[in-house]
Design goal:
Number of strands of chain C: 7
Largest sheet of chain C: 7 strands, antiparallel
CATH topology of the largest domain in chain B: Ubiquitin-like (UB roll)
Number of domains of chain C: 1
CATH superfamily of the largest domain in chain B: Beta-grasp domain
Shape of chain C: globular
CATH class of the largest domain in chain B: Alpha Beta
Helix content of chain B: 25-40%
CATH architecture of chain C: 2-Layer Sandwich
CATH architecture of the largest domain in chain B: Roll
Chains: A alpha+beta (781), B alpha+beta (158), C alpha+beta (205)
CATH topology of chain C: Alpha-D-Glucose-1,6-Bisphosphate, Chain A, domain 4
Structural class of chain B: alpha+beta
Radius of gyration of chain C: 17 Å
Structural class of chain C: alpha+beta
Strand order of the largest sheet of chain C: 1-7-6-5-4-3-2
Radius of gyration of chain B: 16 Å
Largest sheet of chain B: 5 strands, mixed
Mean pLDDT of chain B: 96
Strand content of chain C: 35-45%
Number of domains of chain B: 2
Strand content of chain B: 15-25%
Low-confidence stretches of chain B: none
Strand order of the largest sheet of chain B: 2-1-5-3-4
CATH class of chain C: Alpha Beta
CATH superfamily of chain C: START domain
Mean pLDDT of chain C: 79
Oligomer: heterotrimer
Low-confidence stretches of chain C: 179-185
Amino acid sequence: MTKKFIGKRIKRNEDPQLLTGQAQFVDDVEIPGMLHAAFLRSDYAHARLLSIDVSNARQRPGVVAVFTAEDMGDDWQPGPPLVSPPPTAKDVIFYSRRQVPLVKDKVRHAGEAIAVVIAESRYIAEDAVEDILVELEPLQAVVDLEKAMEVGSPLVHDDLESNLAAHLFQNKGDYEEAKSKADLVIKRRIVLDRGAAAAMENRGIVAHWEEKSQHLTIWDTTQAPIPIRNGTAARLGLSEHQVRVIAPFIGGGFGPKMMMFYAEELVIPWASKKLSRPIKWIEDRRENFYATTQERGQIHDVEIALSKDGHILGLKDVFLHDTGAYDPYGLTIPLNTQCHAMGGYDVKNFATEVSVVFTNKTLVTPVRGAGRPQGIFIIERLLDIASKELGIDRVEIRKRNLIPLDAFPYEHKIIDQAFAPLILDSGNYWPVMEKALEMIGYDKFIKDEQPRLRKEGKYVGIGFAPFIESTGVGPYEGARVTVEASGKISVATGIGTQGQGHFTSFAQIVAEQLGVEVDDVRIVTGDTTEFHWGTGTFASRGAVVAGNAIHAASTIVRKKILELASKVLETPVDELELEDGLARVADIPNKSISLGELAILANPLRGAVEPGTEPGLEATAYFGPKYGATAFGTHAMILEVDPETMMIKIKRYVTVEDCGTVLNPLILEGQIHGGVSMGIGNAYYEQLHFNENGQLLNASFADYLIPSATEMPRIEVGHIETRSSLNELGTKGVGEAGTIPVPALFAQAIENALYNQELEILEMPLSPNRLFELLSEEKSR
Amino acid sequence: MQNLFDLALTVNGIRYEHTVEPRTLLSDFLRHDLGLTGTHVGCEHGVCGACTVLLDGQPVRSCLLFAIQTHGHEVTTIEGLGTIDNLSPIQEAFQDAHGLQCGFCTPGILTTVKSFLEQNPNPSEDEIREAVSGNLCRCTGYQHIVDAVKLAAEKMRA
Amino acid sequence: MKIEGEYTFDGPREDVWELVRDPEVLATCLPGTQSLHLVGENEYEGEVNVHIGPIAGVFSGRLLVSNEVPPESCTLTGEGKGKPGFVNGTGNVQLFEQGDNKTLMTYAGEVQIGGRLASVGQRMIDTVSKSMIRQGLGTLNDAIKARVVARTEAKEVEYIPPSETEFAAAVAKDVAGGLLSSKLLPWLVVAVIAVILVIVWLNVR
């Protein structure tokens, strides 16, 4: 009987290295003769580049080179489009404008790179940056989304007629018809603003072009090493096998490290090839705030049509989406918003229209949640308002609208971020919601505790927010599983790591199939020499897609092992089992052979390998899901608001998650805790403040407040498992789940806490200041 | 020509003598001059705590110190806490309790916790949260970190 | 950001006006000014060493005086840029005789700040700019008083402008005073350390 590893709380294989400071991150790479880069960045958000004079910089001792756009000559090319507009959607307007290596004509956001200095040390490089004389003619910055769309607004891209980057209209059913039959129509304007991913490790890249071997090695803090390899090879006119990209340990990604071909990724490898020297560039924190991608700015005009018993007849959402200065990532985020604006509810009529707008701000690409929190915020707010206006309990109104069990797979007919029609594959929604409410003691709190606390003059509120999460999208991932002569298993897969425990959860999958211990499985990720087919770790897909590829490869290796062992032990396959690193006969335990010995036998030194077979015990397999699996969850929270300072104290926080089969509950909890902490940051502490000139006013951790240990509550994690039918393991993703419902949850809980105010929260992020302002505005009305 | 400084200090029990520029940060000196890359740099403005090392046993932000300020002093970095084959109780506890994910903030947390537990061997949850409130973590939400510190305290009391 | 305020000088309006238009005097009012020249009838060019919290560096820029109604009022338009970022602004200055050899100056204007100064200096800018203005006007006032005394006593003008060190220390003191009233202790430490380091560096130079 093979031991079960899937579902076990197994300690992580990668921890000893990380805990002793022996894990390699990009900035740890040291190569003899390595040079260091520093970038001159624009202070202005929108400006014409008149002239650059780098002569002083070039003369500084220790400076090896200074490059501008002009110096790059024909090699100066904007980055490649990363995500095209959905070919499956109708009437899409899309103007593709991608980020540039170095500014050539115009600066389009503060922090855009204008020139790069390559010097013997970072210190000298930064000194030399100040020697560069640059003349910029400031232009009026485009910052506000609505002003950006007005006629006569300055243009971010002069070759376009307006700041419209894209437009997409999606339709399910007939909203206008539904509206005509409605007993209640609610209209609101909802405004959401930007936050940063703020991973603890800033970005970095080391590029080493070796002229003698005509080979380029790149270490990059990327969530997608394979596309970086392929794109870099293409741009530099190299064969893909001349380029090796290594994504070593990454100190958190959260999305922006999935953005590919940042300016620095376009420039540094090129510079290394030009100089035939290894070059390192490491971002500093301020650069991270300006030059690493961000997300969440949207303005929505929403409408919901309901019957008087609270059934949603239809939903309409017209919104503007801020894409920043360029739009390499296509429509991924707004598509996610569109696909999550119906939540997990049975909505038969939905009209949604997005206009993507260029602004003179940092690029927008997915940050954990990737447009989903915005969608969930909309539907949950509208249901809260409907609940008040119709006099229906807020739990009840949701229960009436949740997609019932027998309706799965549920087709929404609009296109999702993977360009496929949105289908919610499986789920059992009401029990998840019910469990969350039970865990937090919802009924008892509302009936007994809250009235008591209110009498004491305390402002304590309870909130809950159900949500769906699209996960596990394709295209595919692959893996190679090999039994080594030592009996240990080595596995290679293309996706990298952001810290989510791939080295362990993937090992568990293999260990269960092959009957070895988890720490006898060595996983290699993120090295294109080891495995070069795949996409990356993002969109809550790692465990689902790579996990299933690993599973598939493991089952093939298992079969090979059993077939070979069957020959060697002269016993039929179905009487054999794999356990403790051995293949053995089930009823005669000492008739066995170790996997290592089998591996040696499978790689004969004498005799031929039979035609149609391969040497060794190895298999490579790929997995691409038909469509993404949809997970469901509910968060609930009790919080207290101090009416004078508007500071909050979260008393209890509960999450219930249904992400299908759980590979490692310890790691799952960690993902949820981390996601919730980012969600809490998004909701109440973090906001990127750009002023009307496109200047970011809080580009440091002193002013951009991410939650610390004293802001975070204990999170109680509950679980329900509804296996996904879309893959063999039955898993769904969960990486972003923690962030998705939190803004909606905060809005509801705070309104509930401040029960004697007529407060309607239609924006995120909030903050103590902002809450105070909203209440003052309310009072003066 | 810059004024160089002959720096002599002890790091993890080993004495080093290096000539450095006065403006070299301690974090850069440890990471690039000594090759001790376990200490990580998260912000370079003293807020995130990833660069925390112990200076004569007290936690300090190595990104806010010049290397020359440690002349004649003892510095302890994460490499001085334990090795892969010989994890300290704190490191073991962090693995057992899943107190890390990407591991980038971890060195700063471990050095902070080492000093904290020496002064408060039996801390409450609130005391633990307060003690690590100067170490930002974006991955874990802190819960397993707190659990790990509790577990470490138990291990060390045993 | 808006800048507005008023200051009472111990001297007649004509003296105030004259000294305000004298680049040598102006240069001393803002220690850190490395150069200030009159390059046109109403235009100055110059370089100023700026220290605001952790941000330090040289700004080079231009100042234009317009709408002159001597000795009553004028408009100042300036733009400067450098490593710390950029600053653009316009302000209106008005002078009113107060009798008893006193002049009231009122000023009101808008300043736009960008670059490093804006992104990490936000919480310092308000306090520090107010302090710098107050210190600067105080120095100008000393110059005016010295001139009045000299005229009265028919002596040479005795006026020693403050050194950069003294100026920086005075600003740091203001900033510390301002900051202690808010929960910005870490920034206080950083600011004071930075200013002290500047003082040390200036003295070593």
